[in-house]
Amino acid sequence: MPGKPRKPSPDEKKALKAQKKAASKQRRQQIWQAFQMQRKDDKLLIPIMAGVFLAAVVVLTLIGWLLGMTWIFLVFGILIGALAAFAVFGRRVQSSVYVKADGQPGAAGWALDQMRGQWRVTQGVAGTTHLDAVHRVIGRPGVVFVAEGAPHRVKNLLAQEKKRTARIAGTTPIYDVIVGHEEGQVPLKNLQRHLMKLPRNISTAEMDTLENKLTALGNRAQATPKGPLPQGAKMRSVQRSARRR
Fold it and tell me: How far apart are CA 139 and CA 218, in angstroms?
Protein backbone atom coordinates (compact mmCIF):
# COMPACT_ATOMS: atom_id res chain seq x y z
CA MET A 1 0.00 0.00 0.00
CA PRO A 2 1.28 3.43 -0.78
CA GLY A 3 2.57 5.31 2.22
CA LYS A 4 1.04 8.45 3.54
CA PRO A 5 2.26 11.65 1.91
CA ARG A 6 5.07 13.23 3.87
CA LYS A 7 4.12 16.35 5.74
CA PRO A 8 6.25 19.38 4.98
CA SER A 9 8.76 20.29 7.64
CA PRO A 10 8.54 23.61 9.51
CA ASP A 11 11.36 25.00 7.35
CA GLU A 12 9.55 23.93 4.15
CA LYS A 13 6.33 25.53 5.36
CA LYS A 14 8.21 28.72 6.14
CA ALA A 15 9.87 28.74 2.72
CA LEU A 16 6.53 28.12 0.97
CA LYS A 17 4.88 30.91 2.92
CA ALA A 18 7.72 33.29 2.03
CA GLN A 19 7.45 32.30 -1.63
CA LYS A 20 3.72 33.01 -1.69
CA LYS A 21 4.27 36.33 0.05
CA ALA A 22 6.93 37.33 -2.48
CA ALA A 23 4.69 36.35 -5.41
CA SER A 24 1.81 38.36 -3.96
CA LYS A 25 4.08 41.38 -3.49
CA GLN A 26 5.30 41.09 -7.07
CA ARG A 27 1.71 41.03 -8.40
CA ARG A 28 0.86 44.13 -6.39
CA GLN A 29 3.92 45.90 -7.75
CA GLN A 30 2.99 44.94 -11.32
CA ILE A 31 -0.53 46.25 -10.87
CA TRP A 32 0.74 49.49 -9.34
CA GLN A 33 3.21 49.98 -12.20
CA ALA A 34 0.45 49.31 -14.71
CA PHE A 35 -1.79 51.82 -12.95
CA GLN A 36 0.92 54.49 -13.07
CA MET A 37 1.59 53.83 -16.78
CA GLN A 38 -2.10 53.87 -17.63
CA ARG A 39 -2.76 56.98 -15.58
CA LYS A 40 -0.18 58.94 -17.55
CA ASP A 41 -1.67 57.96 -20.91
CA ASP A 42 -5.33 57.85 -19.89
CA LYS A 43 -6.45 61.11 -18.28
CA LEU A 44 -9.99 59.79 -17.76
CA LEU A 45 -8.91 56.70 -15.82
CA ILE A 46 -9.06 58.16 -12.30
CA PRO A 47 -12.30 60.16 -12.83
CA ILE A 48 -14.07 57.13 -14.27
CA MET A 49 -12.81 54.79 -11.54
CA ALA A 50 -13.85 57.30 -8.87
CA GLY A 51 -17.26 57.76 -10.48
CA VAL A 52 -17.92 54.03 -10.63
CA PHE A 53 -16.82 53.59 -7.02
CA LEU A 54 -18.97 56.45 -5.72
CA ALA A 55 -21.99 55.36 -7.75
CA ALA A 56 -21.87 51.88 -6.24
CA VAL A 57 -21.48 53.26 -2.72
CA VAL A 58 -24.31 55.78 -3.08
CA VAL A 59 -26.77 53.36 -4.68
CA LEU A 60 -26.21 50.56 -2.15
CA THR A 61 -26.22 52.98 0.78
CA LEU A 62 -29.54 54.39 -0.41
CA ILE A 63 -30.97 50.88 -0.68
CA GLY A 64 -29.69 50.13 2.81
CA TRP A 65 -31.27 53.30 4.17
CA LEU A 66 -34.63 52.33 2.68
CA LEU A 67 -34.35 48.86 4.22
CA GLY A 68 -33.09 50.12 7.57
CA MET A 69 -29.66 48.50 7.13
CA THR A 70 -27.57 51.48 6.11
CA TRP A 71 -24.21 50.42 7.56
CA ILE A 72 -24.39 46.89 6.21
CA PHE A 73 -25.14 48.09 2.69
CA LEU A 74 -22.52 50.82 3.01
CA VAL A 75 -19.86 48.15 3.56
CA PHE A 76 -21.19 46.15 0.60
CA GLY A 77 -21.19 49.33 -1.47
CA ILE A 78 -17.53 50.00 -0.69
CA LEU A 79 -16.53 46.44 -1.57
CA ILE A 80 -18.57 46.32 -4.78
CA GLY A 81 -17.44 49.81 -5.74
CA ALA A 82 -13.80 48.83 -5.33
CA LEU A 83 -14.28 45.71 -7.44
CA ALA A 84 -16.12 47.68 -10.13
CA ALA A 85 -13.40 50.35 -10.23
CA PHE A 86 -10.72 47.65 -10.51
CA ALA A 87 -12.65 46.01 -13.35
CA VAL A 88 -12.79 49.35 -15.18
CA PHE A 89 -9.03 49.69 -14.72
CA GLY A 90 -8.44 46.21 -16.16
CA ARG A 91 -10.63 46.86 -19.19
CA ARG A 92 -8.95 50.18 -19.97
CA VAL A 93 -5.49 48.64 -19.62
CA GLN A 94 -6.51 45.87 -22.02
CA SER A 95 -7.90 48.40 -24.49
CA SER A 96 -4.69 50.43 -24.27
CA VAL A 97 -2.56 47.35 -24.97
CA TYR A 98 -4.54 46.57 -28.12
CA VAL A 99 -4.28 50.15 -29.32
CA LYS A 100 -0.49 50.08 -28.93
CA ALA A 101 -0.17 46.66 -30.57
CA ASP A 102 -2.51 47.36 -33.48
CA GLY A 103 -0.72 47.41 -36.82
CA GLN A 104 2.57 46.03 -35.52
CA PRO A 105 4.08 42.79 -36.92
CA GLY A 106 3.09 39.80 -34.82
CA ALA A 107 0.19 41.58 -33.11
CA ALA A 108 -2.43 39.08 -34.35
CA GLY A 109 -0.37 36.12 -33.12
CA TRP A 110 0.00 37.83 -29.77
CA ALA A 111 -3.76 38.43 -29.55
CA LEU A 112 -4.49 34.79 -30.40
CA ASP A 113 -2.25 33.65 -27.55
CA GLN A 114 -4.49 35.57 -25.13
CA MET A 115 -7.56 33.51 -25.99
CA ARG A 116 -9.12 31.47 -23.23
CA GLY A 117 -10.66 28.05 -23.67
CA GLN A 118 -9.88 25.18 -26.00
CA TRP A 119 -8.15 26.98 -28.83
CA ARG A 120 -4.99 25.46 -30.33
CA VAL A 121 -2.91 28.26 -31.81
CA THR A 122 0.06 27.66 -34.10
CA GLN A 123 1.81 30.88 -34.99
CA GLY A 124 3.52 31.49 -38.30
CA VAL A 125 2.44 28.52 -40.39
CA ALA A 126 3.26 30.71 -43.37
CA GLY A 127 4.94 34.07 -43.84
CA THR A 128 6.95 36.38 -46.03
CA THR A 129 10.13 38.38 -45.67
CA HIS A 130 7.91 41.46 -45.31
CA LEU A 131 6.73 40.07 -41.93
CA ASP A 132 3.33 39.09 -43.29
CA ALA A 133 2.15 36.02 -41.40
CA VAL A 134 -0.59 33.42 -41.28
CA HIS A 135 -1.48 31.76 -37.99
CA ARG A 136 -3.53 28.60 -37.63
CA VAL A 137 -6.19 28.18 -34.96
CA ILE A 138 -8.01 24.92 -34.27
CA GLY A 139 -11.18 25.19 -32.24
CA ARG A 140 -14.77 24.04 -32.06
CA PRO A 141 -15.60 25.96 -35.27
CA GLY A 142 -12.94 23.96 -37.15
CA VAL A 143 -9.78 25.47 -38.62
CA VAL A 144 -9.31 29.23 -38.72
CA PHE A 145 -6.43 30.88 -40.54
CA VAL A 146 -5.67 34.37 -39.27
CA ALA A 147 -3.51 36.56 -41.49
CA GLU A 148 -1.78 39.84 -40.78
CA GLY A 149 0.09 42.01 -43.25
CA ALA A 150 -0.48 43.43 -46.72
CA PRO A 151 -3.79 42.02 -48.08
CA HIS A 152 -2.46 41.38 -51.60
CA ARG A 153 0.28 39.18 -50.15
CA VAL A 154 -1.57 37.37 -47.35
CA LYS A 155 -4.46 36.39 -49.63
CA ASN A 156 -2.10 34.14 -51.58
CA LEU A 157 -0.73 32.69 -48.35
CA LEU A 158 -4.24 32.00 -47.09
CA ALA A 159 -5.25 30.27 -50.32
CA GLN A 160 -2.20 28.03 -50.20
CA GLU A 161 -2.69 27.06 -46.55
CA LYS A 162 -6.40 26.40 -47.01
CA LYS A 163 -5.65 24.15 -49.99
CA ARG A 164 -3.00 22.19 -48.06
CA THR A 165 -5.24 21.83 -45.02
CA ALA A 166 -8.36 20.84 -46.98
CA ARG A 167 -6.63 17.65 -48.13
CA ILE A 168 -6.42 16.53 -44.50
CA ALA A 169 -9.37 18.28 -42.86
CA GLY A 170 -11.94 16.70 -45.15
CA THR A 171 -15.37 18.13 -44.39
CA THR A 172 -14.17 20.18 -41.43
CA PRO A 173 -15.00 23.87 -42.01
CA ILE A 174 -12.04 26.14 -42.76
CA TYR A 175 -12.33 29.87 -42.12
CA ASP A 176 -9.97 32.69 -42.93
CA VAL A 177 -9.59 36.10 -41.31
CA ILE A 178 -7.44 39.06 -42.27
CA VAL A 179 -6.66 41.43 -39.42
CA GLY A 180 -6.91 45.09 -40.34
CA HIS A 181 -9.23 48.06 -40.73
CA GLU A 182 -10.18 47.79 -44.39
CA GLU A 183 -13.52 46.50 -45.63
CA GLY A 184 -13.98 42.81 -44.92
CA GLN A 185 -11.17 42.74 -42.37
CA VAL A 186 -11.36 42.27 -38.61
CA PRO A 187 -9.76 44.87 -36.30
CA LEU A 188 -7.24 43.47 -33.84
CA LYS A 189 -9.33 44.41 -30.81
CA ASN A 190 -12.29 42.43 -32.22
CA LEU A 191 -10.32 39.35 -33.29
CA GLN A 192 -11.03 37.19 -30.26
CA ARG A 193 -14.71 38.14 -30.25
CA HIS A 194 -14.95 37.32 -33.97
CA LEU A 195 -13.57 33.81 -33.44
CA MET A 196 -15.79 33.21 -30.43
CA LYS A 197 -18.89 33.99 -32.51
CA LEU A 198 -18.11 31.33 -35.13
CA PRO A 199 -20.45 28.32 -35.00
CA ARG A 200 -19.38 25.14 -33.21
CA ASN A 201 -18.94 22.47 -35.83
CA ILE A 202 -16.63 19.82 -34.35
CA SER A 203 -16.11 18.12 -31.00
CA THR A 204 -13.07 18.27 -28.75
CA ALA A 205 -12.08 14.75 -29.80
CA GLU A 206 -12.25 15.80 -33.45
CA MET A 207 -10.09 18.80 -32.59
CA ASP A 208 -7.44 16.48 -31.14
CA THR A 209 -7.45 14.25 -34.20
CA LEU A 210 -7.28 17.21 -36.54
CA GLU A 211 -4.45 18.82 -34.59
CA ASN A 212 -2.39 15.63 -34.73
CA LYS A 213 -2.87 15.34 -38.48
CA LEU A 214 -1.96 18.96 -39.15
CA THR A 215 1.06 18.77 -36.88
CA ALA A 216 2.25 15.74 -38.81
CA LEU A 217 1.80 17.70 -42.02
CA GLY A 218 4.38 20.14 -40.74
CA ASN A 219 4.71 23.85 -40.98
CA ARG A 220 6.82 25.93 -43.27
CA ALA A 221 9.97 27.24 -41.74
CA GLN A 222 9.36 30.95 -41.61
CA ALA A 223 10.76 33.45 -39.18
CA THR A 224 7.82 35.41 -37.84
CA PRO A 225 7.64 37.86 -34.95
CA LYS A 226 6.15 36.50 -31.74
CA GLY A 227 4.65 39.67 -30.35
CA PRO A 228 4.09 43.35 -30.94
CA LEU A 229 5.84 45.51 -28.37
CA PRO A 230 7.80 44.86 -25.18
CA GLN A 231 5.15 47.04 -23.55
CA GLY A 232 2.50 44.61 -24.78
CA ALA A 233 4.28 41.68 -23.20
CA LYS A 234 4.58 43.61 -19.97
CA MET A 235 0.92 44.56 -20.02
CA ARG A 236 -0.10 40.95 -20.72
CA SER A 237 1.71 39.93 -17.52
CA VAL A 238 -0.16 42.65 -15.67
CA GLN A 239 -3.49 41.46 -17.05
CA ARG A 240 -2.81 37.95 -15.77
CA SER A 241 -1.92 39.37 -12.37
CA ALA A 242 -5.11 41.45 -12.33
CA ARG A 243 -7.25 38.42 -13.22
CA ARG A 244 -5.69 36.43 -10.34
CA ARG A 245 -6.83 39.10 -7.93
Answer: 18
Q: How far apart are CA 26 and CA 132, in angstroms?
A: 36
- Kindly give the pairing relationship between strand 142-148 and strand 133-139: antiparallel
Whole-angstrom Cα distance, residue 204 to residue 84? 35
How many other C-beta atoms can be found within 10 angstroms of the C-beta atom of residue 206?
Answer: 14
Using left for φ > 0, alpha for ψ between -120 and 50, and beta otherwise, residue 157 falls in alpha
Facing residues of 142 across strands? 139
Edge-to-edge strands of the sheet including 120-127?
A: 120-127, 133-139, 142-148, 174-179
Residue 9 has a CB neighbour count (10 Å cut-off) of 9
Give Cα separations from 174 to 137, 141, 237 (angstroms): 10, 8, 32
pLDDT in tens, 153-209: 888 899 999 988 888 888 899 999 999 888 889 998 889 899 999 999 989 889 988
Report which secondary-structure segment, H or E, holds 124: strand 120-127
Question: For residue range 84-100, what is the model confidence (pLDDT) as tens digits?
Answer: 998 998 888 877 777 77
